[in-house]
Amino acid sequence: MASMIFTDCSSSSTTATRFLPLSRHRVRDGLLHSRCSTPLRFAPTSPGLLRTIAATSRTYASPSVLTVAMAADTSAKIIDGKSVAKKIRDEITAEISRMKDAIGVVPGLAVILVGDRKDSATYVRNKKKACESVGINSYEVRLPEDSSDQEVLEYISGFNDDPAVHGILVQLPLPSHMNEQNILNAVCIEKDVDGFHPLNIGRLAMRGRDPLFVPCTPKGCIELLHRYGVNIKGKKAVVIGRSNIVGMPAALLLQREDATISIVHSRTKNPEEITRQADIIISAVGKPNMVRGNWIKPGAVVIDVGINPVEDAKSARGYRLVGDVCYEEACKIASAITPVPGGVGPMTIAMLLSNTLSSAKRLHNFK
Amino acid sequence: MASMIFTDCSSSSTTATRFLPLSRHRVRDGLLHSRCSTPLRFAPTSPGLLRTIAATSRTYASPSVLTVAMAADTSAKIIDGKSVAKKIRDEITAEISRMKDAIGVVPGLAVILVGDRKDSATYVRNKKKACESVGINSYEVRLPEDSSDQEVLEYISGFNDDPAVHGILVQLPLPSHMNEQNILNAVCIEKDVDGFHPLNIGRLAMRGRDPLFVPCTPKGCIELLHRYGVNIKGKKAVVIGRSNIVGMPAALLLQREDATISIVHSRTKNPEEITRQADIIISAVGKPNMVRGNWIKPGAVVIDVGINPVEDAKSARGYRLVGDVCYEEACKIASAITPVPGGVGPMTIAMLLSNTLSSAKRLHNFK
After folding, report:
1. What NCBIfam families does the annotation carry (chains A, B) (predicted)?
2. How many CB pairs under 8 A join A and B?
3. What gap in Å lies between CA B349 and CA B125, rounded to an integer?
4. What is the ipTM of this complex?
5. Would you list the domain boundaries of chain A?
């Protein structure tokens, strides 16, 4: 399996992947050709889907139109991350207002950006906008590409000591001359809103302990399951991918909720034999359309974390985004599924805001 | 599933379980009655086993005799933890001698025992003897039952600062008036030879990070697999039990070695469906004979961490020890299996000695 591909899992995204060679995934000859091992042929029993594909073939509808059209013709409930994230941001806004009125404190998030990567600049800008939208103060430091580790460490130290700052993000990737691990370790544990510190991960793994922060993307996955009333306790859950930022913490979170977990990864033989047993699948590997319909048990709930660019000559950008899961097949088999985009993606930043608020509440002992 | 039952998983054992009400498990009417759901009836195709049972019935052979007798008539290779542990202790002895000759340093292990529990005193005495046998200096502090947290913390602080001490154990359980978590957290991470600190567990869970210490019992399980040439990479491994001290870290260790892991626990429905798929089973739940023969895939490797006392009127102690796995059935199906006792048990203390040596080597930068 390839390394994780996301647009931005909070600060530690593998952002370069947007610029990886694109996968082929286009409509031709009335068939949907994808990176799936065979072209998808739809039986006449799926007239709705055929209509959708035909429409796509003619008009090259945007992914969101495609999603809606399919939802109308399939049994899978669409887990709408966009609207859940909006609701959570509204809740955060209200809570911040309550805290400000009660104790005069406004949460603050500091973001440190080193270098000139356009994608990183975009992510930082999006975070800043998201902070503004809910009433979190954002503090941004931009340093030139050739900055020293020491300069970054000094800013981190300043934010660690600043009572107006409750969360600190170092936007990744850092320039290659920097010692990323040393720099990340310098963020004090009480402000590590990404939740990637080994101490947080250890607490997440241990029964009877609680992490200060849960990493944003896996937290978003579980939040979606909760908000859609998906029962986790006692269910079989399979996580595809074992990255530090999504797969591994997602598995630990599911286990904390009493799921029976299995973790599938690049060394797993016949992964589909394992996924087919799952009541809940969380996929986070960064392989477009890897999870086929026949990998999924009828009625399973599918959370697709992958956001993979595939070539699309008809898109103004030259590509479009698809998940790890072959949506067209999965939505006919799963009972509920997240679309890509509009599923897990919007949840990540909502969880970052949530972690920042939690941090401020904890540091000011506000209930 | 019941809570974990072991004699002593380094310092953090649930030692009280030795004194739990004993399970019934005795030979009567030519049948082996156990806590398994049905009495075990042996088909005539297992004459060797029948002979063994008959012998047991007549003479009440000791568990070790029973084990050897069975091994001769079954296909499962006996994973002999006792002899592996002996070999490891010999290796440690040689390494300590090499270090002493080269830099004049002898590893030191400090053990703090609070209160008068006889079982705890026995474990501490065994650790002391094991240290002596390999050339590790042991430092023991015995405090009365009514000691304050502060007194214990002062000893820990002293050992933290003492360059002759490379590992610190606080024997558990502590008296109920003490704050166990606070006390354990006071042991500095560089001397936490139990490896239970959340920072160590976090590093164990994360790819690209390495823990300073791996918890002794799960480390012993993996060491047995290595020493018996069991291939882990790409294999399906099921861990039964998710405790902080065995199940969870065992699963993390197996995943680090590229196994595809599933974790079965008290909330798992039909656990046998999952275990039957495993190439490797590690059971650590503390339920005598829970894992029956039909839970095991033919040819699987079985590591039985459970050490459960079951009533045995013919034993001088009134009980004998059995594992989580119904050995009589499992040894006919597995390709290799650890006996109880004499399997994982002896490995725990060997790994404690190994961790203490590693700590001394690291603190003195000795390769």
Report:
1. PRK14186.1
2. 97
3. 12
4. 0.83
5. 10-82+216-347, 104-204+349-363
